[in-house]
Specification:
9-stranded mixed sheet; 11 helices
Length: about 300
């Protein structure tokens, strides 16, 4: 852009000072700069009144902006915000936790990182929620600020359905087979124990397959998955009941009838094989097998002696 100069016709008096209008006429600025130039001329001539303390306020504003920019570059914005808002009365003093049965409140407090001077204003709720959601028992969590000094944490925890033994490890699992956490105490000893590969995913079938036979289910100590296809039931007295891959309901009906009518599970047996639908095989314990062999031998001897005496 170029400034233009214009000559006026006629001359002022030798000692006359040029007026503002004459100066403007002599020097013509490009259109975008004319308003700025008029403002500066008016400011210099005193036609614009500047309120008191404008310079002080402007200087303070400049210093504040400079300080904020410096904090941003140095990564100190969060710390300064924490200190400022905490001093202003927003320091967190109360944390309300609800819905937790297996999740410790101490764990939650540690993840929130509260130190007595943490500001509610500066707390990152989303980050806190993500940290708490990683705890083993937490299914979902809600974190909410309640001004001026309170945090509310609402949990929904996962539900333990069974205990899964894989190798030497014992883990609590959900109904869908997802592992919650290692088993640490006897608090969950009443839950069914499932053992073996794929047992954790097949555990959901237990309620469906054994729901009609509570008398049998109540005596099962462990459900052992065999080849990912069927169950062996380890009963509370050590007897093993071998169930088929299909027709589980019929097999359990047979077992329940034999136990009700013949007290089968109370006898000195090692296993009951129900894998074939048309027959039930009974395996004796070694001691019972020895006694049976002795009894059969004695009976045969008696029969032989009786035959000789005829």
């Amino acid at each position: 852009m170029f400034a233009l100069t214009v000559k006026r016709m006629g001359r002022p008096g030798r000692h006359a000072e040029p007026s503002v209008a004459e100066v403007e006429d002599r020097f013509v600025l490009p259109r975008p700069l004319r308003r700025v130039a008029r403002f500066l001329i008016s400011l210099g001539s005193g036609r614009i009144h500047i309120p008191d303390h404008v310079g002080t306020v402007s200087a303070l504003g400049f210093l504040a902006v400079t300080g904020l920019y410096g904090m941003s570059l140095g990564g100190h914005t969060e710390a300064v915000t924490q200190a400022t808002t905490a001093a202003a009365g927003f320091a967190i003093e109360d944390v309300k936790v609800s819905g937790n049965s297996e999740t410790s409140e101490i764990e939650i407090l540690q993840l929130l990182g509260l130190d007595g001077t943490t500001s509610l204003v500066a707390l990152d709720v989303d980050a806190a929620r993500q940290k708490i959601a990683r705890l083993p028992w937490v299914e979902n969590v809600e974190v909410r600020k309640i001004y001026p000094k309170t945090i509310e944490v609402k949990l929904k925890e996962r539900e333990a359905y069974a205990i899964w033994q894989h190798g030497q490890e014992l883990s609590l699992i959900e109904r869908n087979g997802s592992v919650i956490a290692p088993l640490r105490d006897n608090k969950f000893s009443a839950l069914p124990l499932v053992v073996g590969r794929d047992a954790e995913t097949a555990a959901a079938l237990i309620d469906e397959e054994f729901g009609k036979w509570p008398d049998v289910k109540a005596r099962v100590k462990a459900f052992v998955r065999i080849s990912g296809r069927r169950w062996d039931l380890h009963m509370d007295n050590g007897v093993v009941v071998k169930l088929p891959e299909d027709g589980v309901d019929q097999a359990l009906a047979t077992l329940s009838k034999f136990d009700r009518d013949e007290q089968l599970l109370e006898r000195d047996i090692a296993a009951v094989d129900l894998r074939l639908p048309d027959r039930t095989a009974i395996q004796l314990t070694p001691e019972a097998a020895t006694r049976r062999a002795q009894a059969v031998a004695a009976r045969a001897k008696e029969l032989k002696k009786a035959g000789q005496n005829i």
